Amino acid sequence: MNEETKSEMKMNLGIARGFAGGEDCVVSHADAGGPCGRPGNRMVWELAFCEVHGAEAEAAALAEITEDAEIELQALRGAENSRLDPERDHEKALLLAYPLIEGRADPTVTNFNYEAKYSGDRPVDGPVDWWAETRYLLCQFMREANGQGLPELVRELEALRERASAQLVQAEDDYERRYVAPYRAAREASTAGS
Ligand SMILES: [Zn+2]
Known about the structure:
With 194 residues, this protein is mostly helical. It has one domain (3-193). 61% of the residues lie in helices and 4% in strands. The chain has eight helices and three strands, in the order αβββααααααα. The chain has a three-stranded antiparallel β-sheet. Strand 2 (42-44) and strand 3 (47-49) form a beta hairpin. The mean pLDDT is 88. Residues 25, 27, 36, 38, 49-50, 52-53 line the site of zinc ion.
């Protein structure tokens, strides 16, 4: 990838901090708990976000181009964050921005049969993979739509991205609770009995 393409990609992310345009945070999807209401003070994809949702959106936007293009992350993030592990940083930001909301898990999550699907020899994707992939794709579409100067479309995609982010948190929790924890308990019980 050449320098021109790289700087164009960065520009298309529309990232700015310390922004004070008097707009509220864009996050408003019901799965994310409804309208955030906090003042927007940072921008990603040229949309205004509050500090918490902005940190998550920025991490998601950077993760998308990093995975895609292996761009120098350090230059984009600035010196203050340069020592953080981007993957872990991203997950932390996600959990802060989209805390689990009881009763809002999508049926794709709650209806998934881990026992049946994960017992085969070949690995299959589950809800965590589906929602993570969806979120990743939405970030890609948002970068491209912003690059094409389509703010209305970016805003509509953002609502879908909020839903995907909230459902990813639901899927991670569900996987841990309905699959990992019982599996671990069963293994411990059998170890104790032998
Ligand atoms: Zn917010």
